[in-house]
Design a protein that fits this description.
The chain has helices spanning 2-15, 61-78, 87-101, 109-128, 161-182, 187-201, 203-209, and strands at 35-37, 138-140. The protein is an all-alpha fold. The protein has one domain (60-209).
Length: 210
């Protein structure tokens, strides 16, 4: 245990300077930047967001707001990755886990498919542009409510970061459009899908800021 602690502190010392100095969020207490932890061998990783199997299949304010909060939490987490090269796969990892926990039948089925599709495309994009210089690993926040990425994150190439982020921006924009169109003919689902689309689309701000 002592050796592991020393290793983590050492890695943090190397990577934490890459985090922007001002990472406080309006209306929330200041949070410590995440630690970069290399992936362990032969162990399973915890979910980024605890699964909620109690979700129903009919649209409701409670379920929609929970999904929107999870999407916002994912963006807040990915905003504080050790370096910008991890942002695309961080978003893909987070959306993947959110989609996994969304209802797959009923009123939310099409929303689940749209989020899952965006996650797959983001993760594929990161792997198509993998950096040969930066390590793959988990991103973990610190503090009492520490969370970490659901799987090891793949950094993208620094020299093509702008182009990769532009492609990721387009993927998020596509997901937003699909969500809006999916509920266009349903007055019951329309407001809920619009809220989810807005939460997904807000990720574009994160990609644009990189």
């Amino acid at each position: 245990m002592k050796l592991l602690t020393i290793k983590i502190i050492s890695l943090a010392a190397i990577l934490l300077p890459l985090v922007p100095a001002n990472n406080a969020f309006a209306g929330t207490p200041p949070q410590l930047p995440p630690l970069f932890v290399p992936p362990p061998v032969g162990t399973d990783t915890p979910s980024f967001i605890p699964p909620n199997s109690a979700f129903g299949v009919d649209v409701s304010d409670e379920v929609t707001e929970t999904i929107a909060r999870q999407l916002q939490a994912a963006q807040d987490f990915c905003r504080r990755v050790p370096s910008d090269e991890y942002t695309v796969d961080c978003l893909g990892d987070a959306l993947e886990n959110i989609a996994r926990n969304m209802p797959k039948t009923g009123d939310y089925a099409e929303a689940q498919v749209a989020v899952a599709q965006a996650a797959r495309k983001l993760r594929a994009l990161a792997r198509e542009n993998t950096s040969p210089d930066l390590p793959t690993g988990f991103i973990r926040s610190t503090g009492a409510d520490a969370t970490r990425s659901n799987s090891p994150l793949v950094p993208v190439r620094t020299d093509t970061l702008a182009q990769t982020n532009a492609a990721a921006f387009a993927i998020i924009e596509e997901a937003e459009t699909i969500l809006l169109r999916s509920a266009a003919n349903s007055a019951v689902r329309k407001v809920h899908y619009e809220q989810i689309a807005q939460a997904v689309g807000s990720s574009k701000v994160l990609l644009r800021s990189v």
